[in-house]
Specification:
The chain is mainly β and 83 residues long. It has one domain. Helix content is 0%, strand content 47%. The strands form 2 sheets. Strands 3, 4, 5, 6 and 7 form a 5-stranded antiparallel β-sheet that branches. Strands 1-2 form a two-stranded antiparallel ribbon. The radius of gyration is 16 Å and the shape is elongated. It starts with a strand and ends with a strand. The N terminus is likely disordered.
C-alpha cells in the first residue's frame, strides 16, 4: 500500500485498487478506485466482460486485484476460476 510521509505526520494508508485479467491474449482491467484504510466503505460497482466460448480454450481465469503505483503495481489478492 502507498504511504505518504510529510511534515513528520504519516498520512493514512490507501490502496488505489483495480482488477485486471488476461484471457486469450487480451488484457482487461477496471478503472482505479482509491480506498483509505480507515475510511468509509467503497461501493465498487464495475464489470469486466470476458468473451468465453465453448469449447473452452483456457481452463482457468485469474482475476488479480492490484494496487496502482507509479513505481510498479502490486498484487493485493487473486481470484481463480476453474472453468
Amino acid at each position: 500500500m502507498d504511504q505518504a510521509i510529510g511534515g513528520g505526520v504519516i498520512a493514512a494508508a490507501k490502496t488505489d485498487a483495480y482488477v485486471r485479467t488476461e484471457y486469450k491474449g487480451k488484457k482487461y482491467k477496471t478503472s482505479v478506485i482509491t480506498m483509505l484504510e480507515n475510511g468509509p466503505p467503497i461501493d465498487w460497482n464495475q464489470e469486466i466482460w470476458i468473451p468465453a466460448q465453448i469449447p473452452i480454450i483456457t481452463p482457468r481465469v485469474v482475476l488479480n486485484v492490484m494496487d496502482y503505483d507509479t513505481s510498479g503495481d502490486e498484487v493485493v489478492g487473486s481470484l481463480l476460476f476453474d472453468l
